[in-house]
Amino acid sequence: MFAYLIKVLLGTLLFLMPLYFDLRVADTFGQSKMAVLYLFSILLFSVSLAKSVYYEKLSFKRTHLDIPVLIFLLINIISATISTSPIQSIFGGYKSQQGLLTILCYILIFFSVTNISDWNPKWQIKLVIAFILSNILVLFFPTRPDFSLGWAYSEGLLFLLFYIGSFYLILCFIQDIYSLPKVFVFVALVSGLYLLYQQSGQDFIQWDTPLVCTTFGNMTFFSHYGLVSFFLAISIFLGLFSKEKLKKKIIDYKRYIFLTLSGLSLLIIFIAVFVMRVRSIFIAGFFGACLFLILLGFRVRREYKKEIMALCLIFVPMVVYYGFTTGRGIFVRTAKEVTVMAETEGLLGSREKFTTAAVRLHIWRGCFRIIKDYPLFGIGQETMFSIYPRYRTLAHAKAEGQYSRTDRAHNDVIDVVSMTGIFGLCAFLFLHITFLVITLKAVYQSKQRERIMLVGIVSAWAVYHLNGLLSFGTPCVNSMFWALSGIGAVLAGRPKVYEKKLPLGSMKWVVLGAILAFSILGLVWVKNIYYADIMFNQASRLEKSGNLQDAIPKYKEVLRLNPWQKDYSDSLLNTYLTLSRRYPNQDYTKEAVFWAERSVRLFPQDSVGWNFLGGAYYLDGVATGKDRRDEAVAAYKQTIIREPYLIDAYTNIGQITLSQGKTDEAYQHFMKVLSFEETEPRSLYYAGQIEWERKEFQKAKEHLSKLVKLHPTYEKTESAKKILSEIERK
Predict the structure, then answer these.
(1) Is 675 exposed, middle or buried (0-12, 13-18, 19+ CB in 10 A)?
(2) Is the Cβ–Cβ distance between 161 and 195 less than 8 Å?
(3) Are 482 and 106 in contact (CB under 8 A)?
(4) Is 335 helix (H, G, I), strand (E, B) or coil?
(5) Burial zone of 193 (CB within 10 Å; 0-12 exposed, 13-18 middle, 19+ buried)
(6) Residues of the chain with CATH 1.25.40.10
(7) Burial class of residue 121 in the structure, from the number of CB atoms within 10 Å of its CB (0-12 exposed, 13-18 middle, 19+ buried)
(8) Cβ–Cβ under 8 Å, residues 211 and 203
(9) What is the SS3 string spanning 273-317?
(10) Run of H or E residues at 62
(11) In this predicted structure, what is the pLDDT of residue 352?
């Protein structure tokens, strides 16, 4: 019972996570999927523990990847513990969600796959389980605001039947280690069909924002998942032609049905992946295809000559079409970007000639500066968004604005070194080199069935990493990767079964009770973070509609349910500061100061909290009549330390110190801004005003004339014109 329950939970997790989303949550394609990951990971862990305790026997299969995986986990634990922001490293950042807890879930998926059992119930039991799971899912189906089972048995009957059929297929796919890749292919097929439906101009859902791509929300994320699944689908397709299959007495029509369905799935996934024309997918797909053919070997390629030729005749022209057709053709677009990068100074240039490829070069440059300062264990997982602004290049700040940031390097290797240091890189390489060595060795020692599947897994593994060099993985894609690593580890060598008795005696029921309590607490935690994001969505909508007073209680409830997300705290702070500017009320300003001080305590390396704190101190001084300008200046200076190109912090210091009569200090800050952003209007005006008061008329004229010419609608432009008139008269 325990063994099959673990398989059901694992299969449901891998199936549901990429497809599920909830329109009620703010992070529709992030928090929805993370809730699935956390929920089923807690259940998987609890059931696995309960199995060992109930039978009083610890039993697991050991593979060649166990030690590299555990070393990788250990380095990540150390990095998170000594992180620049342990809270962010443990719980993960908002939307990116790649903290230590997520990594623990990935490791759990890996070991669940390597220890999967071969026991299977009859089809009737599978159908009952599929029916139960489908009814549970209907309660959370996101396309309607009123969720009910009653709807499922009336208007939503087709959805319910689709769920039952899907879950039944998934339960069939998890019957053994060879069938598990079919889960990913099925997910890619369903998501790809939805994408093609969207491409036809139709959709089941009226989205609030444009460019929502299938169940992943983003075309790059789906393309990444779909391309990995495509190589698994090729292995499954070729496996239908294997000698072992042909020797079996299978009725012809049944075999033809399997071949037809497999071929159609392959074609649909390919079209859905490449129709989006993502650059990294074309590059990864080309090298993945070459690796696939090389690993098959000459003898196997000769046996599958007709099938491989047929696939090439179908897919190569399609690649040419998607790559070179005018407009969105990937090769045409890339050539234009290279031309733009070559023509612009520093590979970036003006906003009109800005390219995404160019800005990534500057992101990498900033990451190399981070690595230099944090070489051993890095800055910690999920802290890039807070730490990167300190190391950001001026070119990046100019191209995307003073508040430009990134939470990823768009390169997996640079991400690993930046966040977990040299030790993290060594663990990362040890894990992946070990995987590559054991699987390549097994490819040339395995029978045909295992060989074809291993070739598909190794090619999918390579595609995942090649795409990661130009992009980054999401929890959906990363979960699939760790599951594939487990499958590869099992197929590459016979796992050794390790067993040890656990003589618990009467303590068995106490331990089982503790496991049950842990499960309940874990499920409550998942519910809290899930409902926190639902309420965050409601609060954000209220704030955008101008109902700031109504938004504040909801933001506070969000932080009560999930106090560790910096984005939630920042949103509440922004609301309080907006209210304080509109209505200088000390009740608002005191709350703003309280939450800003809390933010810098929890996230001391993040410049946003310090910037908010400076504003809160200043506005509180205005509302209460106290002089808090020195505190505001001190907070803004802390902001500048963490974000050297944040113009607003410099100009705020300049204006505050100017009001204190500290003209020299104010002038220094305004001139500092003009040293890297020569057209900034506030700095042009106040620098010119100070120069006019100092009787430095030539400098004042230069700055104020530039202001009048470049910013005719700026609020101080009329005042600048008057000063220029005074200068002309003198």
Answers:
(1) exposed
(2) no
(3) yes
(4) helix
(5) middle
(6) 646-730
(7) middle
(8) no
(9) HHCCCCHHHHHHHHHHHHHHHHHHHHHHHHHCHHHHHHHHHHHHH
(10) strand 57-62
(11) 47
Q: State pLDDT tens for residues 363-389.
A: 888 899 999 999 999 999 999 889 999
pLDDT tens profile 253-296: 666 677 777 888 888 888 888 777 777 788 888 888 888 888 87
Give the whole-angstrom CA distance, residue 242 versus residue 168: 26
Give the whole-angstrom CA distance, residue 300 versus residue 259: 19
Spatial distance between the Cα atoms of 605 and 609, rounded to a whole number of angstroms: 9
- Entry field: residues in the chain: 730
Q: What number of other Cβ atoms are within 10 A of residue 177's Cβ?
A: 20
Contact 253/485 with Cβ under 8 angstroms?
Answer: no
Render the burial of 712-725: b for 16+ CB within 10 Å, e for the rest.
Answer: eebebbeebeebbe
- What the block records as the tokens of 330 is 């990937």
Rg (CA), the chain: 29
Who's near 67: CB < 8 A, 6+ residues apart? none
d(C-alpha 476, C-alpha 463), whole Å: 15
pTM over the 0.70 mark: yes
Summary mean pLDDT of the chain: 83
As to burial, measured by CB atoms within 10 angstroms (0-12 exposed, 13-18 middle, 19+ buried), residue 541 is middle
* Domain 646-730 listed as CATH 1.25.40.10: yes
Between helix 100-114 and helix 66-81 the angle, nearest 10°, is 170
Residue 555 has pLDDT above 90, yes or no: yes
